[in-house]
Design brief:
6-stranded antiparallel sheet; two-stranded antiparallel sheet; 13 helices; disordered N terminus; 10 strands; alpha+beta; 303 residues
């Protein structure tokens, strides 16, 4: 890839970095911008020009930041004058892992689960009003299942995080759902709490159709057409499986089991991604293994 093409790709991927408002400490923010940029391209050595364009800093400022980071071992400047992350930063990162025992303990449990069942798996953690995918084993076939992806904590997804929540929090989450989905979601949340896991059954190739229908529903259309669009969306989104809905072949994208914090709140989940048709018995077997892995991680964190 030429530098021009590479810079264009970086600019698109990292536009949010340059567009963020100034922080309380601009010099600190520039260091963070630089490290974040390099961390998103770990296999590449980026030129000063690429870093300048992607971060929006001046050439002089970027050079000063990189000179300091390189002097401290947080970045490396290669023979061609390009930059990548250095071992000094890796040392800091390893020390920081002690603050996140859940991630460290879950990684091995997820790997065992993925290896035992021959399918990808990942850890999803609650972070404010979103869920973040933090550890991924294997290569999930659904594009959004990737490390670093933020998923809004909103219906109809993230059900394993809300099923055990207090009534007020659960009601607030349900209130944000499409009215056509609320009765189904209420039933599903009760089932998830009873059996211990959620099932995602939406086929990925339905997503473009759903987006198009949702856009039409909110456009200036007649009430009958709007009701029909809502009905079509409901037909496409069959949220989870209820026990009496399982058949000989069940389209399963993922199965998720909660990890509980010390206060009983769901702080994370382990998600395994078959993305295929499964017999009911195989689905239950996989779900029970996922629940066991999540329970073991939760117990290990609280020891």
């Amino acid at each position: 890839m030429t530098e021009i093409a590479s810079t264009a790709a970086l600019s698109n991927a990292d536009a949010r970095v340059a567009g963020e408002p100034n922080a309380a400490s601009p010099p600190t923010r520039r260091v963070v911008q630089t490290i974040e940029l390099l961390s998103r391209h770990p296999a590449e050595h980026l030129s000063l020009a690429q870093i300048v364009r992607a971060t929006g800093m001046s050439r002089a400022t970027s050079h000063a930041v990189l000179t300091q980071l390189t002097g401290d071992g947080w970045t490396i400047r290669d023979a061609n004058g390009n930059y990548c992350l250095g071992l000094g930063l890796m040392t800091v990162a390893r020390r920081a892992e002690a603050a996140f025992p859940l991630r460290r303990l879950a990684a091995e449990a997820i790997r065992r689960l993925a290896d035992a069942h021959g399918m990808p798996a990942f850890l999803a953690e609650r972070e404010g009003d979103s869920i973040v995918i933090t550890e991924v084993i294997g290569s999930p076939s659904v594009p959004w299942m990737r490390a670093g992806r933020h998923i809004p904590f909103a219906p109809p997804v993230c059900r394993e995080f809300i099923a055990w929540a207090p009534a007020a929090a659960r009601a607030e989450w349900l209130a944000a759902a499409d009215p056509a989905h609320r009765p189904r979601l209420e039933t599903v949340l009760d089932v998830i709490r009873t059996r211990g896991y959620s099932v995602e059954r939406l086929a990925d190739d339905s997503a473009p159709m759903l987006e198009a229908l949702a856009a039409l529903r909110h456009s200036p259309v007649t009430d009958p057409l709007r009701h029909r669009l809502s009905a079509m969306i409901t037909e496409l989104i069959t949220i989870d499986y209820l026990p009496d809905e399982l058949g000989e072949h069940n389209a399963v994208v993922s199965v998720a089991a909660p990890i509980f914090g010390a206060d009983g709140e769901v702080v994370a989940s382990i998600v395994v991604c078959p993305d295929t048709q499964l017999p009911a018995a195989r689905l239950v077997e996989l779900a029970e293994a996922t629940v066991a892995a999540a329970s073991a991680v939760g117990a290990a964190v609280h020891r």
